[in-house]
Design goal:
heterodimer; A: D-Maltodextrin-Binding Protein, domain 2; 2 domains; ten-stranded mixed β-sheet; B: mainly alpha; MetI-like fold; two-stranded antiparallel ribbon; globular
Chain lengths: ~290, ~290
């Protein structure tokens, strides 16, 4: 009796599986892999795109920008999502494997510097931010706050956000500069962890994607130059490029895109695709691009 | 036909037995292949005793001393907390508790072992962190101590179940003899049963440590991951496991950073290997 049931359920299972796999294999499928920041955005694009083009199936997975780029080079994905630029070493590896990699800017992510709501500091220049995150400025009273040690929070090194902030704020745009995060910087595994920690600790400072900002934390206006102008982070300020801490989110393809990959890319860059960017709390590309 | 079947099954079982060892060896070689590549460009001295971990710098600084000490302090903390608790629990279950409480406690301990580490990390982040922060008036609750407390919870099931095995496998005649000589129950436990079970107890502690040092998710969420040389247990630290987990995703394949993470994995593998070896040696000593 038992074996009969098992055989029956096994056959049933196979019966379901075969048509399913057949369906997937028969149609074009696109593998998208990479940045964890972009996974949800990629998923939202893919769902909308598949609703319109039922013959194409897309699979979006995370793992990190580096993972995605490595997969692109190894030929196991069609599009790599990345929240940082490809490094020279990766360009070289791609060339060696015979790929002609193309880069596409698909959205913008603005980063907000956040502090505890009770913190009197309202604005910081890049010089001050660099000083705080590299450990040269260790007390809030050096930047106009209370006499209190600064608790510096950062995303961990697996995050494209970490790298962007390092290259564009700590090193002030000089990507190969000598500046490093101070060893005492707390490296937290997620943006949510930074929000939680900043909301609990009145001496903390951290940076998060604009979509994560909540009333539990206070954003700080930032300025690239000493003396201003200081700009509060917002979608509008990121779109008209007056807010200085905004980074591009990128797609990489191994060849010039064609077929369904091109169709997907066109969809992402279309007005509808950019609308999805906005609903996912990222910043759409400006009109000029 | 039947004999052939018997033969076949025996060989398959034999193969499965050796498969485990084969996998361990393969994993070791895989780690060693990529890990040792690092030492073409970085001296082992700088790797093991360097005090700066800045793999994104140019050139990368890959000193693992802060990470090693981070792992060490968290592990020591967890051991100090979990061993007395686990030992007391094992003695209670093995010697003192009435039958129904024993069954209840055993089930509870097994349940504790089944809690995923991310859940413990989550509870630690929302409950333990703020408690530690307020208790010691710290700027942050993400410290080595927070990690140690959470890890102690994870080590206790391992420690209790192995120790309890060791305690209940002490021959009954030892206990009876001791009681017959007029020793109290506590004297019997303290002077006869614990010494007789000592090798099993040592093994339990070692395996508990092995469990703690390899734990990743909870420590990553709770210890703050700052790569400083820890001075006290109330500071944020960065462990070796959390470093590998946090940095593998974004690193450039084939870069010095990538190889450094493999070398770090190799260090971790060697440490856990020797801890397990020590536990094994302790267990085998008992059987002689």
């Amino acid at each position: 009796m038992k074996t009969k049931v098992m055989v029956c359920s096994f056959l049933f299972f196979i019966g379901i599986l075969v048509p399913l796999t057949g369906a997937i294999a028969a149609e074009g499928s696109i593998q998208i892999k990479g940045s964890d920041t972009m996974v949800n955005l990629g998923q939202a694009w893919a769902e909308e795109f598949m609703a319109e083009n039922s013959q194409v199936s897309l699979a979006v997975t995370g793992g990190g920008s580096g993972t995605g780029i490595a997969a692109l080079i190894n030929g196991t994905c069609d599009i790599a999502e990345a929240s940082r630029d490809m490094k020279p070493q990766e360009w070289e590896q791609a060339k060696k494997s015979g790929h002609d990699v193309h880069e596409f800017k698909v959205a913008v992510d603005a980063l907000a510097v956040v502090v505890h709501p009770s913190n009197p500091v309202k604005e910081l220049t890049f010089d001050q931010l660099s000083g705080i995150f590299t450990g040269k400025i260790i007390n809030w009273n050096e930047v106009g706050g209370k006499d209190q040690k600064i608790l510096v929070l950062s995303r961990d090194r697996n995050s494209g956000t970490h790298v962007y902030f390092l290259e564009h704020v700590l090193r002030k745009g000089n990507e190969k500069g000598p500046e490093q995060y101070a060893p005492a910087t707390l490296m937290l595994p997620s943006t949510q962890a930074i929000i939680d920690e900043v909301s609990q600790s009145d001496s903390a400072i951290g940076y998060v994607g604009l979509g994560y900002v909540s009333p539990k934390v206070k954003t700080v206006a930032a300025s690239k130059m000493n003396g201003g102008p200081f700009v509060q982070p917002s979608k509008a300020a990121a779109m008209d490029k007056t807010y200085p801490i905004a980074r591009p989110l990128l797609f990489y393809t191994a060849q010039a895109p064609q077929g369904s990959v091109k169709a997907f890319l066109d969809f992402v860059l279309s007005a509808k695709g950019q609308e999805i960017v906005e609903t996912m709390d990222f910043v759409p590309l400006g009109k000029k691009e | 036909m039947r004999r052939f079947k018997e033969f076949l099954i025996e060989k398959i079982i034999l193969l499965n037995g050796f498969a485990c060892i084969l996998f361990v060896i393969l994993i070791f070689f895989f780690l060693a292949k990529d890990g040792l590549t690092l030492f073409k460009t970085v001296s082992p001295w700088h790797f093991l005793f360097g005090t700066l971990w800045n793999p994104l710098a140019e050139p990368p600084q890959v000193g693992i001393l802060p990470l090693f000490l981070g792992s060490l302090i968290v592990t020591l903390g967890a051991t100090v907390i979990s061993v007395p608790l686990g030992m007391a629990c094992a003695i209670f279950i093995g010697e003192i508790a009435p039958r129904w409480i024993r069954e209840l406690l055993k089930a509870g301990v097994e349940l504790l072992a089944a809690i995923p580490s991310i859940v413990i990390g989550f509870i630690g982040m929302t409950m333990l962190g703020p408690i530690v922060k307020n208790l010691f008036h710290l700027p942050t609750g993400l410290t080595a101590l927070t990690g140690s407390l959470a890890l102690a919870f994870m080590a206790i099931p391992t420690i209790v179940s192995i120790m309890e095995d060791a305690i209940s496998s002490v021959p009954r005649s030892y206990k009876e003899g001791s009681l017959a000589l007029g020793a109290t129950h506590w004297q019997t436990i303290h002077r006869v049963i614990i010494p007789a079970a000592s090798s099993g107890i040592v093994a339990a502690v070692m395996l508990g440590i092995g469990r703690v040092i390899g734990e990743t998710m909870a420590v990553m969420m709770l210890t703050g991951n700052a790569s400083v040389l820890p001075k006290t247990i109330l500071e944020p630290v960065r462990t070796m496991t959390a470093t590998i987990a946090a940095e593998m995703g974004e690193t450039v394949r084939g870069s010095e950073h990538y190889f450094a993470l493999f070398a770090l994995g190799l260090v971790l593998f060697v440490i856990t290997f020797f801890i397990n070896l020590a536990a094994d040696a302790a267990l085998h000593q008992k059987q002689k």
